[in-house]
Amino acid sequence: MQKNLYERLGGYDPISAVVDDFMQRQFTDKQVGRFYVGHSTNSKKRLRQLITEMICEITGGPAKYVGRDMRTAHAGLGITGGDWEVTVKNLTASLDKFKVPQKEKDELLANVAGLRPVIVEL
Ligand code: HEM
Fold first, then answer.
1. Which atom of ligand 1 is nearest to the CA of 77?
2. Is 108 within 8 Å of 59 (Cβ atoms)?
């Protein structure tokens, strides 16, 4: 039987390493870094944790995402299509850094692409 995406990515630890690297890129990015200005170190860690759990859940892992739904969490931030592209680029760079194979990378990015309509406002 084919393993699910969570298992093929290596489970929780490799996923959390990718998300940690991805969020560092987001926080320091010259275009999208502005969204995280004024967030404490602890708030950023909380965000990283929620994103890790969410990715574990959507890839078929046992973790339960307990954060807000994606529309509610992003409503009013005014995220543009350009911000979305930068975010996908940063996530792709992190997946490449950890040498996630093409097939798993494509599957994860396709999954994430489904969130675009509820996150992008402008
Ligand atoms: C790749 C797709 C994305 C995913 C999987 C994602 C996931 C999440 C999650 C799980 C949360 C936490 C929800 C909660 O606090 O309950 C969140 C919040 C947030 N996201 Fe995203 N997000 C994505 C795209 C973006 C983009 C494109 C931006 C802006 C560049 C962004 C900016 C934010 C900010 C600023 C918050 C904190 C909102 C607040 O606490 O008021 N996100 N996101």
1. 35
2. yes
